[in-house]
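Researcher: Here's my situation. A collaborator sent me these components and asked whether they could plausibly form a single complex. I don't have experimental data yet, so a predicted model of the whole assembly would be a useful starting point for our discussion.
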Amino acid sequence: MTWEPVIGLEIHVQLATSSKIFSGAPTTYGAPPNTQACAVDLGLPGVLPVVNGRAIELAILFGLAIEAEIAPYSVFARKNYFYPDLPKGYQISQYEMPIVGLGRFEIRLANGQRKFIRVRRAHLEEDAGKSVHDAYPGLSGIDLNRTGTPLLEVVSEPDLASAAEAVTFMRGMHALVKFLGVSDGNMQEGSFRCDANVSIRRRGTNILGTRTEIKNLNSFRFVERAINYEIERQTEVLETGGKITQETRLYDPDKDETRPMRSKEDAHDYRYFPDPDLLPIVITEADLVAARAALPELPAQKIARYLTEYALNQDDAEALISERGIAAYFETLVMESGDPRLAANWVTGEVFAAVNRARIEFSRVPVSARELAKLLVRIGDNTVSRSIAKQVFEAMWSEGGTADQIIADRGLKQVTDDGEISALINSVIAESPEQVAQFRAGKEKVFSYFVGQIMKKSKGKASPQQVNTLLLEKLNEQT
Amino acid sequence: MANEFPLTLAGLSAGLQKREFSSAELTSHYLDKIAARDGQLNSFISVFPEHASTMALAADQARAAGRAGPLMGIPYANKDIFCTEGFRTTCASKMLDTFVAPYNATVVEKLHAAGMVMLGKTNMDEFAMGSSNETSYYGPTRNPWNLGYVPGGSSGGSAAAVAARLTPVATGTDTGGSIRLPSAFCGISGIKPTYGRVSRYGMIAFASSLDQGGPMALNAEDLGLMLNVMSGFDHRDSTSAERTDEDFCAALNFDLTGLKIGLPTEFFDESLNSTIGSCLTEALDCLRRQGAECREISLPSTRYAIPAYYIISSAECSSNLSRFDGVRFGHRCDAPRDLMDLYVRSRAEGFGAEVKRRILVGTYALSTGYYDAYYAKAQKLRRLIKNDFQRAFEEVDVIAGPTAPSTAFPLGQRVEDPIQMYLSDVYTTAVNLAGLPALSVPAGSVQGLPVGLQLIGNYFREARLLNIAHRFQHETDWHLRVPPFAA
């Protein structure tokens, strides 16, 4: 390929505050239209914005997590334009002096290599409302519930070289903000969405090509497909001697294509200027020291630790840090059970499967890490086999109770007595002359048939290792 | 009983307390006067006789029950820029002709909590943009000293109503001189407090970094009584100053011995009207006799104040007035063809010429390619102006000068000449750019029209300014003179 894509993302992260960024109205999603907009959100004459301190804290938390400079002094600015869902005729944002400056975020590429993506800035702003075009025939409605919802706009440098890298970066950011509790990350509800800036250039050159901006991509799949479409489109244009127009484009997922929305010529002049209704945000060194002290172990640090300290593989480690609650659950499980690998297998296996079946949030898992750890200890000391342990877990999940109690009540303790197991083996061998003959004729596959029968007779309680050893001895000795 | 009422807040407060008259009597006295006289003056946009009477009765009951602060039951007039729940707030614009806010401005809340009785809403320049009260959608207010003259603006309705004794006090707002200039033109007292002293919540914004509410009254003591109620930190206004409450009347009678008054050479140069100059000389002599010493100072950046002010205030207004788009409230054009038509016609029909002029100037000043040359430069000038004052206040306690370069001018004289109109604010705008407190008190008369003395103080030194003004009014009678219209 002679063309090299250059991609940058602008990610809009909705901050997890309970009230809006400049008013006391709630941010709950899905309320009836215009029931969560107060006089300030409506931009009535005379009302004034007051900044939500929690939004500032969350922006600082995010900034520290990407090793960014936190501005000691940052300024809210007005971005002026007319639109029916923008009540004041301007959006309060940050322009020349954003709260979060240059930072970086590491991603792992498909080939296992690592790459730092630079984040140019992240700034606080308010969301606009929403125009509703299908509620009244011939008329447009306006729902201002979203108005004033706090957003952190994260702007990357154009360090991404493919759609896949862009998606990896976006997924990493998504995991990070969810992990930190900066955002609920709910993409269906618009809490996490992005614009992609895409250009291509001939390999080997350093000059950036003309870029287009694809607006409002709200799923990882759309980001990938939209960018890939745009790379192909630009390649075709340039290879047939055409020129790329700097413009804003919209991705249509139904047709899987991007379409021009507005060109640079009709771009707004937003007439940014510092908002005189709001004081500058001043963050002192003492504020930063406190924020740093409160910073939790970050996902990337946890992954590194899981790999070295617990000898997990990358995929399991990533799955375990996808939510802060999962990581905490896993770490308690490791501490209490003393077996990191077993703990990892159980969380990513049985626990995740049960969560999916029950369709619940991980935070609602009914079996605590402490209780599950006791079950894992029973696997370790051979009280129960792994398959019996699954039964015990299911009982703990649906009925409650401790592992030991369930094992005792239901007689699920593993059979480890050689004599008892030998008796089971003998009776199965006696009942299966045909299979014995097959085995002896060299058809070793029937071995698993015997194992199955023996386990069945023991109701799964026989120690599988002992069954294997003793069965092999018996079948061989009678030859 | 009519016409027997005291004129000042202090007098009214004492009378109410001694049960010499009731709030109901007092209120109906003023309502009657407004009904009888305001047709000529046009100082009110709205009058609320029923509401005022109800509030007066409630105040009388509260007083009878022993729950009465000093201002309980005293009527006042509200500049029609402060939002009043349930009563329309027009900002003297067709755009808001029918607008009724669902909330009270903080200032209104405070005045009502103190038991004051709102008589009505006063006329003003449209969106407070003007120096003569001639840009009002509801027609100009006339000056009680001469009905052919302007009352000054933008709080001209409040100034004229107080001067004509149609209300004992009124609220005003001052972005570039809008309390002080009409106070000077109408011969009353008015103070623009330090920026942040009075909450801007519910006060319809003209230029947010300059706007400041304040009282207008017949004397300095009344200003202090009003400021005691109107000021204070408001968590709904981020630019509100966090300070402990202060009694603005506590220092009224302090001695002026040793007071250092700065006289800026830039205010007293050859461009100052000589008759106004001699009024000021007399006023300063009066203060000198009480122990004050005057010295020349320099505020070299004064000449930048008008251009910087008109850039910054217009830039902010162009953004602040974007919300008036015909979509959610305010004037909406008939049968819009599409969105653009809705915006264009609603705004073209709803705003008057002066408001449009400022929106255009402000939009231009903020545009890409012009921002640095205009808005950014104006902010630098603002800093220079601030620094001038700070240097001056290292040497002197207050700065004195004229409030306006002339007395009131005839109606219509400057309507077609915006630059001439803007120059009315030559002595007042610098104070807003610096965020300082300043007041204007009557200090003379030229051809039957009042002259104002302006006193500028350092940040949060309102009490000192009121003290000087009070002592001045103790020795002079300019504030007691009654305009022919009210005689």
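Model: Some features of this prediction you could bring to your collaborator: Chain B has a mean pLDDT of 96. The CA atoms of residues 59 and 73 of chain B lie 5 Å apart.
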